[in-house]
Every structure is written in structure tokens, then in C-alpha cells.
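[Meeting: bench + compute handoff]

Bench side (C.D.) handed over the final construct sequence. Compute side (W.E.) agreed to return the predicted structure before the next meeting so the bench team could plan truncations. Sequence as handed over:
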Amino acid sequence: MGTIGRMTAQATAEPTGCFVVPDDAETVVEARNLAKRFPTGVDAVRGINLRIGRGEFFGLLGPNGAGKSTTVGMLTSMVTPTGGSAFIEGIDVAAHPARAKAQLGVVPQTNTLDRSLTVLENLVFHGRYFGMSKKVARSEAQRLLAQFRLDERAHAQVAALSGGMAQRLMAARAIMHRPSVLFLDEPTAGLDPQSRIALWEIIQELHSHGQTVVLTTHYMEEAEDLCERVAIIDQGRIIALDSPEALKASLGAARFAAVSVSGQAADFAAAAERELAVVLDATAESDTKVRLSLRSGTGVLAQLLGVAETAGTTVTDYSISEPTLETVFISLTGKELRE
């Protein structure tokens, strides 16, 4: 179990590409053939079908430019779709953006706090915007400041906040009006480890009380530890969706090994794949490095040393690891840099 804590997974995926929540779960977020083509002709999102259940912690992963931020933009009324529909609590987001916004909270990547207001005032004004009375807004703001560990900064200017404090304040503001679903867009990017853990402890507490959360992140450990289901998006389409555990199991390997050799790595890889039943596949990643997918991790090193000798190479380094969500991500999307 990771530092942040493991959530119970539940998911199914239809072979048609319309990925669904369990039958007994109530849908809060839905995308139906959702698409976005920009005026430049770029198809950022190409017909996504998606349902997220009430109380679910759901993750969206993808390389840069994969379409995940555009998808979130359409789900939160910030981006107008060119095809399909997005729904929050059954409300058509494009047709009724004001009604939809009342049901969602968003923590964006960039700091959008009002720098002319104090920490407390940022929350009070947000609550007033969504129809709270002045008394209720102030009471709720004070409660949230305590919950988000910001009560001592209530009357400080937001410009004086650290990055972690500002991010916690944006999260508090996002749930000030008690939305059905909380969208977190790369919420811990640039935060130090302590601030990251503090934010996630608070978000987990919210989730434990039934808050539906949709997360986009580049941190695989966050997604693996927090999310009950994860959708991997690439080139505007969902290419995989399931619980982190099921996605890892889909690789078919119990362990992975990284082996450094002196000699011809390609010869070693071919020999290992040919001669060892424990090896599912072997790939020479360079002249000296080989990556192996293994059925198990027991007694592998001794077998590899024997193969190295027959292949005329020498093993100079060896490490073994379990499948991770990052392994799945790289397997599906490749290692190439995305600009």
C-alpha cells in the first residue's frame, strides 16, 4: 500500500468502448461521444464515452496533448464540445452551464485566487456568488479553513500564501458551495512532498464522506494509490479503463527485470526468451540493457546468469520490480516524449 492509501476498486468496461460504472452505482458525470475539434483542425478529443459513479475517486491519465485537460474542460463547461454531450447530475453542461456549475467544483492547475481579497474573503465571496447568505457563507468559510488547516491565515492576503497553502485554499473554495463532483486538474504539480501529502489527506477525508472526485495527474503513484478507476487517454481516445490493479494485471507479467550486460544485449535477449520458460518476452533497449517480462520472480537471476554464459555475455547489473501503473502507462502510450 502506498503512502496515500489504497481505495477499493470497482469497474467494468463494455467492449464497445462505452466504459461504465457498476450497475448499482448512481451516475454523476457522463460523457456521450464527447468530441472537440479546434479551429486549427486538431481533433483533441475523439468520441469519448464515460460514466463516473457517485462517491467514486476517478483518475484521468495521459501524455501531454492526449486530450485529458480538454475532456475536463468540456465536462466543466470551460470548453465547448464540437460533438457529443457532457452531463453533470443529468444536466447537459453545454446547454445549461450555470446549472451545471452549481454541481461541480474545480481546482485548476494555475492559481486563480483573488489577490485583492483575504483568505477568508475568497471563500465568503465564492459562497455568496452561489447564493449563500452572508452569515452562512462566513460560517462555512471558517469551517473549511479549519478543515484545510488554514484557519490561522484567515485574514492574510493570498499573495502571502505558500504554494501548498494556495492550493489548499483553492480546494476549499471549490467545495464551498457543496458540489456533487470535485475536479482536480494536476493539483499537486510543483508542490513539495509535505504539501502534497497534506492536500491528499484532506481530499481523502472529503472522499471518505462521499465526495465524488475526478483527478488528472502526471504522478502515477497518486493515481495508483488514490483512484478506484483510471482512464488512460491517448490521441483523444480512452485506450484503457479499469481499476489500477486490473490494469496492472492486464500486462500478463508478475514481475519485470532490468538487466545490464557486457556483450551483445540483443543476443542475450533472444537467448533468454528462447531458453527460459519464466520469460514472457525480452527486449534489448540498448547495446547493454535488456528488459524482461517474467511469469514469476523466483530464482530468475541464476537462470539469467546461465543464459548469459551460453550467449557469450556477462550480467553486470540486475534489478526486479512488480508491475506499476506507470508500467501500464508506458506500455500503452510508449516512451517517446510528447511536446
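W.E. noted at the follow-up: Residues 251 and 311 are 28 Å apart (CA to CA). C.D. will use this when planning the next construct.
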